[in-house]
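In response to reviewer comment 3 from the previous cycle, which asked for concrete evidence that the modeling workflow produces usable outputs, we include below a single protein chain processed end to end. The sequence was submitted unchanged, and the resulting structure tokens are shown without manual editing.
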Amino acid sequence: MADKEYTSFAAFWPFYLREHSLPQTRALHYIGTSLVVALAVYAVISGTWWLLAAMPVAGYFFAWIAHFRVEKNRPATFTYPLWSLYADFRMWGLWITGRLGPHLAKAKITEA
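The workflow returned the following structure tokens.
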């Protein structure tokens, strides 16, 4: 849980990364976010619109396992839902493009 109130995404971002400090936590988030993206693409291509309803389930299922079982912390989405959603996709995009390392280092997280 956030010890302080964040009033900007720039201040929230390092906190978000520290809440995802373990590689296993981030990996479970990547699985969930990848499923969300795959479901969205497939739903649009196939016209199977009900799959859009499965997107939050796919994303949050893996994220919450990561927080409650691996990281043992409270998901930031409970306090900062929109910033957390944006941060999750930002983290995923930086990971996909191989650019997450400097952000983790700046947040004082060592990649293990």
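The helical segments are 9-18, 23-46, 55-71, 81-96, 101-106. We consider this sufficient to address the reviewer's concern, and the full set will be provided in the supplementary archive.
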